[in-house]
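ok trying this again, last paste got cut off
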Amino acid sequence: MLRLEVRPQPSARWGYASPLLALAITVVIGVILFALLGKDPVRGLQVFFWEPLKSTYALSELMVKATPLLIIALGLAVCFRSNVWNIGAEGQFVIGAVFAAGVALLAGPDTGRWIVVAILLAGVAGGMFWAGITALLRDRFNANEILVSLMLVYVAIQVLNFLVYGPWKDPLGYNFPQTKTFDAVTQIPKLMQGSRVNVGLLLALAGVAAVWVFLFRTYAGFAQLVGGLAPAAARYAGFSSRKALWIALLTSGGAAGLAGALEVAGPIGQLTPYVPAGYGFAAIIVAYVGRLHPVGIVFSAILMSMFYIGGELAQSRMGLPKSITGVFQGLLLFALLACDTLIAYRVVWKK
């Protein structure tokens, strides 16, 4: 009989192998799922894992999807490594988009390109403000940051809906709930002609280096890590848990807000009720599949963006429902959680 036995030490090898095994299990279950739905499994795998890579344009769209996921997941990695459980990145993403849209709507015929910087800073400020509410309630009243940050997601969506259905609604928009299209001067600069990839990709890659340096090469990052791994040791060493809480949540919120600003002033170009695309929740999976390491998160963000694009292609080319993207994301998360068991336990055969 197969049994699980506690390892003397957690396995570092399975720490890296677990995401790969989880991906393999997700693919196998996906094949079974396609077969049960009466679809060609080979075609299904092709749509999810080959179509997003087969051309330059497809790769550029992959980067467009991966950029917000990467930025948000980097902020969440700082949070989770600090033992602060921010589940509300989606709300911080939305409020960042709202703040950025507020600045973008101020643009006029004489506005210079400086406004792009103002839009991005506004997005960061919006995300930090929304995450700061969670930090304040946790700090002052010991409120559970998981519940508070999660509930604030729905408040953020209501704020967005109030604005696009109310005071910010475009009077010339044929009654659609959306703001006017932002002026061209507010558009995030693109990296390549003929694609939608913008400077957000460079900011995301700079963020990878910045988070790596912060976590592994600075005193403040060391304090965050110790606070997450061993709170008692952190207190003994004199590290402030309050400071760690605020740094983690403001960093995470600012990153999510920046992603919201890049999205609303980039590919979308206006504020609509469809700004919440689930990036904030998907980034939680991205962060964990990437083992909360900045470099690992790059690869997991690309993988998750393949699921997004594959899901869209599966709708149009195979007649599958939109929810297929969420199914694959959920499968990957559950498979990862199951495979992570092998880090602390090993499978043994006992008669």
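PB: full thing came through this time. The radius of gyration is 21 Å.
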